[in-house]
Amino acid sequence: MGSTQSALNFGAGPAKLPREVLEDVQKEFLSYQDTGMSLIEMSHRSKEYTKINADVQTAVRELLQVPDNYKILLMQGGGCGAFAAVAMNLINRTGAADYAVTGTWSAKAAKEAAKYGEVNLVFPKADKPGSIPDRSTWKMNPQASYVYYCDNETVDGVEFSYIPETNGVPLVSDMSSSIMSKKIDVSKFGVIFAGAQKNIGPSGVVVVIIREDLLGNPMKCCPSVFDFTHIAKENSVHNTPATFSVYVTEKVLQWIKRNGGLDEMAKQSQEKSGLLYGAMVASGGFYSCPIDEDCRSRMNVPFRVGGGDEKLEELFLQEAEKLRMHQLKGHRSVGGIRASLYNAVTLADVRLLVQFMEEFQKRHAKQ
Ligand SMILES: *Cc1c(COP(=O)(O)O)cnc(C)c1O
């Protein structure tokens, strides 16, 4: 029998979800609202799923205060599917798009978009990873169909602290790992998308928020399942959606609402990440973060141990595992340690991590 006690999960995605939500799902798993059927056995055209589909859209609209002239879509294909979908739906206007590449995911998005049109990188690939070149230095193409950036680079730990100005060109943002962690002014965006499995649900569903005037111009090659205009028209039930993922996501959004909404999520993510970055400063260099201070992520905190001593980092991970602190390994492309601090991760979880870091340093730092 496995333990039912929850571990300390610092995973980057799929990631920790609120225990309360999982228990709720468990409770109604065999019989959804006394129907005698599981939700995952029900038609996506049933009245039960129709309500979930409506409720999840309402919750996104309320939490992010999405204006009336935006549609909310629930799609599949993951964040990577959205990289292609964004290009196929938007690049047609002028055939070109601007991309700000600040890390792994925006680099992939730019590469994907280049299959469909001309991609201009607004600054050269950062010679120093872990920084965002000042907005005044970006070389924008005034003819771009849209300007694309990733609000929070999950792998690299780089987060924008502002919304880039685009002089009227529609702005597209990948918010997969930062959505619902802070308030945002949706009216500044053309499109926002987020794969749910980082901060708001299980894998399988992507939330897309799109300004209505950007609909209606997909490329001919765009598959119907990726066609924002078509999905909007079909109210996100063009074909079978990931019903279970949407259902759990709806529950997570209600949990956020019950727990103080985005003001509270923002406050807590400041506290949690502040505690961890503060601990690094206090360690006198034993723990170090390679990211510029003005763009350090509140959601994914990468750090090195002993100046990047891989043996010591391996030991750090092993000892952490023994304390049931899981999924702390940095992404395979960057190495080191990464602690992801999504909404469901508590301040108490982070305190335990920091305590472990202090003890580990005492035992292993070279005197
Ligand atoms: C995880 C992630 C993706 C990729 O999502 P998939 O669902 O695995 O395709 C894209 N962008 C960001 C910011 C991510 O964190």
Automatic annotation (TrEMBL):
Question: GO CC: one term?
Answer: cytoplasm
Top-level EC class: transferase
Tell me, which GO biological process terms does this entry list? L-serine biosynthetic process
Q: Which reactions appear under catalytic activity for this entry?
A: O-phospho-L-serine + 2-oxoglutarate = 3-phosphooxypyruvate + L-glutamate; 4-(phosphooxy)-L-threonine + 2-oxoglutarate = (R)-3-hydroxy-2-oxo-4-phosphooxybutanoate + L-glutamate
| Alphabetized UniProt keyword annotations | Amino-acid biosynthesis, Aminotransferase, Pyridoxal phosphate, Serine biosynthesis, Transferase
Provide the Aminotransferase class V domain boundaries: 9-353
Enzyme Commission number(s) of this protein: 2.6.1.52
- Pathways per UniProt: Amino-acid biosynthesis; L-serine biosynthesis; L-serine from 3-phospho-D-glycerate: step 2/3
Q: Which cofactor does it need?
A: pyridoxal 5'-phosphate
Gene Ontology molecular-function annotations: O-phospho-L-serine:2-oxoglutarate aminotransferase activity; pyridoxal phosphate binding
Entries under InterPro entries matching the protein: Aminotrans_V_dom, Pser_aminoTfrase, PyrdxlP-dep_Trfase, PyrdxlP-dep_Trfase_major, PyrdxlP-dep_Trfase_small
The lineage's top-level taxon is Eukaryota
Q: Family, per the entry?
A: Belongs to the class-V pyridoxal-phosphate-dependent aminotransferase family. SerC subfamily.
- Which NCBIfam families does the UniProt record give? PRK05355.1 (NF003764), serC_1 (TIGR01364)
Name this protein carries in UniProt = phosphoserine transaminase
What's the source species for this entry?
A: Phyllotreta striolata
